[in-house]
Amino acid sequence: MSTRRIGAGIATLVLAGLLATPALAEPGVSATTIKIGMFGPLTGPVSVYGYPINNGAIAIYNEINAKGGINGRKLEIVHEDGACDPAKTRAAVKKLISRDEVFLIHGGSCSAAVFAAREEFVEEKVPFMVMAATMDKISDPMDKYIFTTTLPGSGDGRVMLDFIKTIPGVKRLAVVRNKNEWADAKLEKFNANYKAAGLEVIADVELARNATDATTQALAVKQANPDATLLVTYPGESAVFLRDALKYGLKGPYIGTNGIMDVLDLKDRAGGAEAVKDVYVSAFLKGPIGSPEMKEWTDIYVKQFPNDKLQSLSFYGMSGALTVVAALEKAGKDLTREKFIAALESINKGNAGPAFCEVQFAKDRRQGCLDGTMWTLSADGNTIVNLGPSWKKIK
Amino acid sequence: MDIATLLVAGLANGSLYSLMALGLVLVYKTQDVINFAHGEVLATGAFLGYTLYKVVGLPYPIAFVVAILLGGLLGGLIERIAFRPIAHHPHITLAMVTVGLSFALKGALRIPYGRDIYVFPPLMGHTPIMVGATAISPQSIVTIVVALMLAGALFAFFAYTTMGKQMRATQQNITGAALVGINTGRIFSFTWALSCLIGAAAGVLAGPLSLLYPDMGTNYLLKGFAAAVLGGLESVPGAMVAGLIVGVIEMLFGGLISTAFQEVSAFFIIIIVLMFRPHGLFGQKPVHRV
What we know:
heterodimer, A: alpha/beta, Rossmann fold, 5-stranded parallel β-sheet
């Protein structure tokens, strides 16, 4: 056989091979599965939050698999631990993309860690749905491959500011805050707009992460004598501050971020209803745990994770998972990353599941949920009341 | 700002740092090793106290005593199982074992308690006692009083009991102590038991001030370590006093200067002190044979 004939034969075989498997050429997509990479803080102190958040998304994906999958393919989750550490998170994302060859990634609860990994998605052109991180810089300025259905920090700040404007007699504010990028994101838009709203910040007090005492902060706020106090702190520190505020006779109202939207949990941590009786929190869920609006999503979570303690965090990842599922269905059987991105961009009034919003993406929009509401405790301190955007007196 | 309120809160936090420092100093004096798992000992004590008080339903004083005794038992077991076989290895090896132990204890706590955060109710409620304009938390009083009682008991133990004297002898010269017939192995076990008993006591006292989760001890370890270094690392009275100093410094700094620097203020002061007294406030200048 001549060399030319052998060469022609090989070329034919290669061409035939390429033509025979066009649908399987996309990373992470096989005839029977779609690989979804998932990362989050699964070790270290923040794993307290990492597991319930990721489990909410996993519950949705498992539910879809139980119903037969998407276009004949089951969803296969590949897990990596970022430990809420920027370097580890970037390494985890690299591994998911390069070694596990996932089709898309849905993950990330720690803003700084997710932001550190941002370039990986941009450079590798891998679709990324943010799980729960709220830093605006992750998705704004927009990149073609990065989407979020989590209310970004700026949105949270706007919801709180709009609410404060409606509280009668509130002009002078104290801010109690963590010193980190999470708090900065919440306060960026707030700081840019509070003066225009006729408000004044008369005290800006810092509370360290994992603080076990807030005596100095409570006394500093008491000395400033504000009309209201803005809490931009994580649940643990918020509870410590409210406990010490009560101890030293500080009065509310307190306005908190959606990080402490589980006010019943906050009540337990702060030592009782008295500490949280004048607390109002931003929320991006349709209703509190146990409310009729949450039943469908509660059932799904409990079915998949019957031994988990149900908390607000359990629902954070669901809106992203539902949006990923909707886009995968829309992208069709002949799945490619470009088709998936196009499907995401076409989502209009999408189902956000337990989240308060409807998902809205476009070619120039990657932050899909910008709506929130405000919650507080009922007068007896036993249930959460959805106030909507404006202050109302609780009877 | 009310200085007296800051001082009382600082003394309450400082009492916990003192107990942590005491536990660290005891082990360091005997075996020349920093126990990096001491934060997890505190967490274990807190969870034991919580379980006995909230789950089993024992009265608080009994839950406290049983929890710290169990903490002591844990310390004895740690020494017997993890340290006795390698007691004569280099100090760095022993230190690394304590690091491993820290992870092991955290992992062990996660088995029964999972990843939730627990709330340890205060012994006497949150309502402060008002003395003039000064608000004093009842839990702060409990913390300070119990810590001082424990420290007093420890000093009496070292001064008046045979075991205490044997421990001091072993701390001064292990070989000499062995030569005069002291069972140094037993002393090592007892030292670890005593150290962990004090750490567990700090945990039960810290529980109502903090929230309970397996990583809760890290911050206390750092502050306790800072106090131990400030006090002189080998000085029991130094650990006690320095813990109180650290607690008061950070409270005054946060209250009178800036909350932004409250967490680092104590370390800042310690750096300055160590520049002038490298052996700490109560440590003795090392003497070298020439």
